[in-house]
Specification:
By secondary structure, this protein is α+β, with helices and mostly antiparallel strands. The protein contains three helices and five strands, in the order E-H-H-E-E-H-E-E. A hairpin with a 2-residue loop joins strand 4 and strand 5. Helix 1 packs antiparallel against helix 2 and helix 2 runs antiparallel to helix 3.
């Protein structure tokens, strides 16, 4: 059974550009199960559409979230968190797994292993950090165009 909760804004998403506006943040925490990959894609799509991010950029972000969440499910085997932060024209995506990887045999090379390469091609910048509570993989993406006024409620 999945548990989903909003992540409080604790400023833990790393640096964002100073735009003079408070960054928008949203997050979700759930059990690292295969079913959660679909849920995190949906979450990302809905949040970014609400924030006025253009469809093409939403699709890019959804693919990044899908790849990073899949990695967290396969390798973290615990709770995972997806956090989105938008400041001006910069979107930061953080996917964190909160557990030790479980030992298991590596899959054949042709079957897996391209997720981070895909993310690297789509994102302007990526980084991985090991924390005492787990691993966080971040991707920063430029979102040049946004629909609607800059100060939409949300």
């Amino acid at each position: 059974m999945s548990h989903t909760a909003l992540v409080p804004d604790n400023g833990d998403t790393g640096p964002l550009p100073d735009t003079g506006l408070a960054p928008r943040r949203a997050g979700v925490v759930m059990r690292a199960r295969e079913q959660c990959v679909r849920a995190t894609r949906h979450f990302t799509s809905v949040v970014l559409a609400h924030w006025g991010v253009r469809r093409e950029e939403v699709e890019t972000a959804v693919l990044i979230v899908s790849e990073l969440t899949t990695n967290a499910v396969r390798h973290g085997r615990s709770d995972l968190a997806v956090t989105l932060a938008l400041a001006g024209d910069t979107l930061r995506i953080d996917v964190t797994d909160h557990g030790e990887p479980s030992p298991r045999p590596a899959p054949p090379v042709d079957e897996c292993g391209r997720g981070l390469d895909i993310v690297g091609c789509l994102a302007d910048r990526t980084e991985t950090s090991l924390q005492p509570w787990g691993r966080r993989v971040s991707a920063v993406v430029g979102v040049a165009g946004r629909r609607g006024p800059e100060h939409r409620p949300g």
